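Continuing the series of single-chain predictions for the mutant panel. This is the parent chain; the variants come on the following pages.
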Amino acid sequence: MTEMERSRAARAAAEAALVRVVHHYGARPEFVVIGGLVPELLCAGSGWRHAGTTDVDVQVDLEVAAGAVSAARLEQALVSAEFQPDSDRVWRWMAEGHSAPVVVKFELLTDLDDQPEGATIHFDGCVRLGAANLRGTGFAARDIDIRTLSARVGDERQTVEVNVTGIAGLLLAKVAAARARRAAKDWYDIAFVLLHNDLGGPRAAAEAVSARFADELHGPVRSALDDLLANFNSERDQGAIAYADQMSADNPGLDLLTFATDAVIAVSTFHRLLTTPARGPDA
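Parent structure:
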């Protein structure tokens, strides 16, 4: 991502675009916000600020389950909020940021067992609206917090309610995404949330994941966790470097190695607590 796309102004533009969509929807939509807008919400009490994003990623399994009327309502809300569909990808809609010179991308994701990985799902009752079927995003739709967001829509400031994934849903969805696409932004987001979350750090994050998804930390999930660890085994691994590079860019003059070491320790702790059988209350 460019420097502008990872900025406070870019994040504000993306959040404002999300508020516009929900405002035009007319109620709290069924979709669940995941991706780069969420870390800052989960780390609101931290003195460190998340880099931001121009992407509004939403998980729409609940929208799909609600049927064609709900999907058509979402499509109309996107149009009213000045979004237009990508010509080749019906799961990506784009709009100019009102408060910053960026393009905001609104991306719709599903995790449907009866559809192949990467398939494009076309919604009944819609002209262009669809979703990309990505494994792991379904965790986000099963761990929901209701958040209140505000932004200016036209001449007035609007406040809306929106479903946002909790820390357990975000981390497992991000771990799956990191394994699939090897993107620096995913490793950065994971390490940032582990280190700076409002629950208190990597141990608390692991406890939240275990409490919500204890029976699912095997098979593909365990493989994704092992892959995460492999990318944070040392300060020279690409996951640790991705976190350190972004933190150094946002905080000039601070030590790159310290950031990388912090990420290695956080991921190691998270992995160990989720993959080692408990041996008692102090395990």
